[in-house]
Amino acid sequence: MISRYNNGLNKMLLHLPTGAGKTVIATLIIEKLINPSDIGKILFIAHREEILDQTWQTISSHLPSANVQIEQGSRSSSRNSHVTIASVQSLIRRKERFDPKDFSVIICDECHRALAPSWSEVISYFYENQKSNSLLLGMTATPRRSDGRSALDIFDEVAFEISRVELQDLGYLVPMQYYAVRTDLDLDRVKISGGDFQVGSLSKVMNTPTKRALALNAWTEKGRNKKTIAFCAGVEHAHQLASDFTAHGIKAGAIDGKTTNRKEILQSFRNGDIEVLSNYGVLTEGFDDPGIECILLARPTTSPLVYTQCVGRGLRPFRGKRACTIIDIIDRSAHQLQYGASDMCGLPRNWRSNGRDPYRESYAISQIKVSDPDAFLKIKRAASLEEVQSVLMSIPPEYVTAGLDGERVLYYSPAKEQFPYQGARQEARKLLHQANAPVRRVYQHNGSITIALASPEINNERCAHLKWHLERVTGWSVEYSKGKVKSNPRAFLRSMLSNTQKLKRFDYNPDDGTVTAWINNLSHHDLSEIPEKFREKTGMDLEIKGQISMSLF
After folding, report:
1. Residue 493 confidence class, pLDDT cut points 50, 70, 90
2. Alpha-carbon radius of gyration of the chain
3. Backbone phi, then psi, for 113, in 5-degree steps?
4. Residues 217 and 268 grouped into a single domain
5. Within a domain: residue 412?
6. Whether 145 and 284 share a structural domain
7. What's the CA dihedral at 31, 33, 38, 39 to 10 degrees?
8. How many domains does the chain contain in total?
9. Per-residue pLDDT tens for 334-392?
């Protein structure tokens, strides 16, 4: 992007999925631009207080030598600031305080809003009155608005874009666990206003005891103990849904555009004092809390912009977070204007993900290559990955060039119920052999079947769908480990013991990768710490039998 700017392209757009870290990317761009001595000031425009504060925090921490100030409400920036972060609402009233020629770079966050009259007025004042080599940079996850207009009406060219699946593979986003809750919403009775369901009319549909109980029960089943944002159909809906959660002993809160103690509530949510935070019209854009593990969509929408922004709030990676659960309340009749995950991912509208990531499913299906026209049509009409796999297994192999993910088709009969462990292990080994998977061993651990792969990478597309096949064929939950087996596990265990501890006996079962050891002079702490470190280094489960030192009591 910097090279394009240096070559004379002045109006550019960054198209990045929600959660990709647009503010961090903007900070890196600012860092590149403020180094040259002849660059002017930088203006960062946003529309909400939370975004301004988060942007100030990000830029200040990354660029401690830069003078970064906020122009909003009671806060005013001075003439000596390198970067001014301003709300569009404040700039409308105060723009004459600024000389547009002082700013060489204008950055517009959530720039799909740039077509609104207030934004157009601000952009026109600061950009059109600048020197000719100034840069106008827009950032958005959704360039196209609900009314059909696009941010590209203002910005000349998309300078950079990347897909959600690519960001997942790079580790910048986590996958979804998507669950649709189908019910009778009668959305045909809801009026459309401004490109989306009319707020008052939609709130009457969603804010009933029955619909709120549906949302609460769905969360109890799929989202319990997960830090959750609930998106609601209206202000009253948000507050009453929070009250329902509280009445069931769940720490919940609610905010809307007029909440006076919004900062305190958001901080309580970040701290974990609030488990479920319901809102209307506040957290759709700009709110950043990577610890969010669940999104409860208790408000249908016709807007791709609103839907993708809501879902994206939970997709940022965080320590120990493997996925984000999405609970979506949708109309059973598949209302033709309601936008949902299937539309977002290019899947049939009646698609059922059953807890999987629809983006991954869509990609897996796109890699299928079959030469049988009837099979091709059946795959296109399928409503789940299970149906697609059944179609693939029914086609003669000579008509299938590539199956899911472009891999070979795996042939098996799905388990009707969970196999006993030995039978499940046998079925898993047969499927792994068929898939040519680099497996070291298959063993039972914590109620799951664990597959130790002789591969440095286990979080990729192929492994994800191989896991799905394994769970279908065994009826068990399946996990992966990297299978880091030491050539001499007995010697490694000895190296972990102190001079006062003695290894009396060592039994190693290579079939399931388990070890039983008899050790003298142990403490209670050793009984938990040694097996944990042994598993971390070797990938094997260690059972310790022996004597606990009486001197340690």
Report:
1. confident
2. 28
3. -80, -10
4. yes
5. no
6. no
7. -110
8. 5
9. 667 888 999 888 899 889 999 999 988 998 999 999 999 999 999 999 999 999 999 99
Distance, CA of 164 to CA of 178 (rounded, Å): 15
CA angle 198, 201, 206 (to 5 degrees): 110
Spatial neighbors of 413 by CB under 8 A, at least 6 apart, are 473
- In this structure, the answer to whether residues 384 and 505 fall within a common structural domain is no
Q: What stretches of 223-329 show up as alpha helix (H) in DSSP?
A: 235-247, 262-271, 304-312
Helices within 302-400 (DSSP H only): 304-312, 341-345, 358-366, 373-381, 385-394
How far apart CA 323 and CA 80 sit, in angstroms, is: 44
Residue 534 has pLDDT above 70, yes or no: yes
Give domain status of residue 413, yes or no: no
CB atoms within 10 A of CB 523: 16
Of 11, 31, 2, the residue nearest 108 (C-alpha): 11
351 contact partners, CB below 8 Å, separation of at least 6: 341, 342, 358, 361, 383, 384
Q: Distance (Å, rounded) from C-alpha 40 to C-alpha 38? A: 6
| Per-residue H/E/C for 258-271 | CCCCHHHHHHHHHH
Q: Is the pTM of the predicted complex or chain greater than 0.85? A: no
Same domain, 302 and 344: yes
CATH of the domain at 319: 3.40.50.300
Angle between the N-to-C axes of helices 373-381 and 385-394, in degrees from 0 to 180, rounded to the nearest 10: 170
| Strands ordered across the beta sheet of 514-522 | 502-509, 514-522, 541-548
Query: What are φ and ψ of residue 470, in 5° steps?
Result: -65, -40
Q: How far apart are CA 472 and CA 393, in angstroms?
A: 14
What would the pLDDT profile of 207-221 be if each residue is shown by its tens digit?
A: 999 999 999 999 999
Distance CA 398, CA 392 (A): 11
Q: How many CB atoms lie within 10 A of CB 131?
A: 10
Domain that holds residue 385: 367-406
Q: Residue 297: what are its φ and ψ, rounded to 5°?
A: -90, 90
CB 17 within 8 A of CB 164: yes
* H or E element at residue 221: helix 209-222
- Whose CA is closest to 214, among 236, 254, 182, 189? 182
Pairwise CA distance, residues 392 & 526, whole Å: 51
Is there a contact between 4 and 12 (Cβ–Cβ < 8 Å)? yes
Collapsed DSSP state (helix, strand, coil) of residue 30:
helix
Q: Which of 162, 195, 213 is the last residue of a domain?
A: 162
